[in-house]
Each structure stands twice: as structure tokens, then as C-alpha cells.
Design goal:
Blueprint: H1 17-28, H2 30-40, H3 46-82, H4 88-120
Amino acid sequence: MSQTSQRAPTRPRGLPAIRIGITAGVTGLLCCVGPTVLALLGVVSAGTAFVWANDLYAGYSWLFRLAGLAVLGGLMLWSLQRRDQCTLGSVRKTWPRLLLAVGIAVGTCLVLYAITTWLGAFV
């Protein structure tokens, strides 16, 4: 006698707003986070990381922020297309998740900026 296993119907998962927001937030602040991570891993000295972060932030911060916005938009579009939700009606249904992704991206940028600024005070 064999038992047949019945699978419960799977629900389509929602938009991965947390992962999208964190990825976009980190991308938007890679000018400071990259050198900080290298210093924490011991690849470069703290002084070198501080100089690199200041140079990158002073000269290219707008470019990193635009890259973060591009990553945010691209990941949202890719995620919606993957779920076949790229219509106006579907976007109206998922707008809270889209807004959550934007909020998490901004929050991630702010938290990482605060951490890197705080770590820069010790150099």
C-alpha cells in the first residue's frame, strides 16, 4: 500500500523588499562601506581606508547614490517581471512592498553612513 502525498498549493511569494532595500542601500554607500570593510578585514590600514572613503565620498558620492537608485529600480523591475506582476494593476497591489523596499534602502544608507562616520572618528 502506497500513500500518495498531497502537496498544499503554493502561494506566490511577495516582493523581496528587505533584500532589495538592503542591496540598494549598500550599493548607494559603497564609497564608504567598501574601504571600511577592507579595513575591518585587515586588508588595508584604517588610515588608508579613511583616506579612500573620504576621497570616494567627496568626489563620487553622487555616482554611488545613482548606482544605488539604479540597483533599486532594476531589482524591483526584475522581481516584478519574474512574478508576472509588471502591470499597473499589479503594481497597485504591491505598492506597500515597493514603498517598504525604498524605505529599507534609505534606512540602510543612513545606518551605514552613521556607522562609517562613527568609525572614522577613531582614526
